[in-house]
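Expect chain and fold; see below:
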Amino acid sequence: MQKEQISVFNMFKIGIGPSSSHTLGPWRAAQQFVALLQQRQVVELVVQVKILLYGSLAKTGKGHGTDIAILLGLSGDDPVTFDVTQINPKVDKIKRDHQLILGNHQPISFYFDDDLMFLFNESLPFHPNAVTFQAFLSDGKAVSETYYSIGGGFVVRENETSDASHEVDLPFPIDTAADLLHWCRKTGLKISEVVMENEMAWRSEDEAKSKILDIFNTIKECIYRGCHTTGYLPGGLNVGRRAAALNKKLIGNRPYGNFDEWVAAIRETGDSFKNILDWVSCFALAVNEENASFGRVVTAPTNGAAGVIPAVLQYYLVFCEGYTDAKIIQFMFTASEIGSIFKKGATISAAMGGCQAEIGVSSAMAAAALTECLGGSQRQAMMAAEIAMEHHLGLTCDPIGGLVQVPCIERNTMGAIKAITASQLALQTNPDNAKVSLDAVVKTMWQTAQDMNSKYKETSDGGLAINIPLSLPEC
C-alpha cells in the first residue's frame, strides 16, 4: 500500500517565514482548529482559547515566530495572502487590546502571557512539534485538539485517519527511488514527465503548469527583493543582511530596472568560477534573509532550507541558459519528486532529523533537478540526489537563539553549492558504477535521524546554539 500521495504543490507551498515547521505549520494548525469549531457550529460560543506548545515548538517557538503565526491563524488570516507588513501591527494590537477576533468573526478576550503557554520541558511522543488548542465555551463545555507540525508546512491532527476521499488513482505510484526508476524504465519518461502524469490525477496539465509558474513568480520576487533590501534581521541577534551589498558589488554600474533586466546584467558579469560562486551565494542569502524577516517565501521543501532550490534554479536560469517556462517546470517537477521520496522514507523535519532533513533534502532535490535539466539521465539525476544527501548526513540543527539565522542562512549557500557539485559529478559518471543508491541514502538518513541526540534537533539545546554568547535567554 502506498504510504502517502504527495502533489508537487504539497512540496512547494507559498507561505511566510521564518520556518515551515514552526511558523507555517502552526499557522495552518490554528486555521484547521478554527475550521473545526466552525464545522461543529460552536464558534459563537467560544469565550476563551488557550494554546499549549510542546517540545521543539516551545523551545524555539519565539525565535521562529510560532506565537505570531498561531495568533494570525486563529484570527482567520492566511499565510499565502496576508500582507507581511501588517504582521507586527496586528499582533501588537492583539497583545495591547487583550482581544482576538476568532476566525475574523468572534471576539474573545486573549491574554498573551496567560493563554499561550510554552511548555519547555514537555514533549508528546508522536512528533516534537506539537500544539494543543483548547476552546472554552459559554455553555461550560470545551473543545480540545492536538496538532503536529511534521515539517515543510505539513500538519497532522492527533488520531487523524487517512481520508479515502482525498486519494486519487495515480498512474505511477511511487514510494521509493526504486519505484521511480521502475516507471522511468518502463515508460521511457523523464522524472519530470512521470511527475506530470501523476499530477494530472489532481488537476489538468495546464493548471499544473500555471500553478508552478505562480510558485516560481513568488521565488523570483523573493530573490529580487532579498537582493535589494538592506538592514538588520529581527530577533535580537543584530545579524546584518548581506545579499544586497553583495549584489551591488557584483553587478557594478550595470543598469537594470526589473528581474529580467537584472538577469541580463548578471550574465554580463561573466561566468568565471569565482563569480558564479558569489552569485549562487547571493541568491541563497537573499531568500533566507527574506525568510528570517517574516517575508513571503516558498517552502522548498521547508522554509529553513528555502534558499537552496531558488539559488540553484537561478544559477541554471542565468548561467546555463535555462530561462524558459518549460525548463522551470521541468526543474520544479523533478525536484518535488525527490523531496517526496525523502518525506516518505525519512523526514523533512529538522525537529525529527536535524538539518540533514532540511538543507540535505533541498540540496538533493536541487541536484536531481539540475541534472535532468542539463540533459542527464534519470539514473544520473537520482545519483546526483544521492551524492548531495550523502554529504549532508549527520548535519545538526542548532539555531542560535532559536532564530532561523545563524547558521541557517549560510547553510543554504552551502547546500546550493553542494547541489551543483553533485550534479556535475553525476553528469560525469556512469551510474552503473555507483556504490550507493538513493534509497540507501534515504534509509541511512532516517537511521541517522533516529540516532541523533535531541539537542541537535531544532531545540537550541546544543551545538552552536549554546556555544555562542549571543544566544537569547528563552532558548
Remarks:
- The two ends are 41 Å apart (CA to CA).
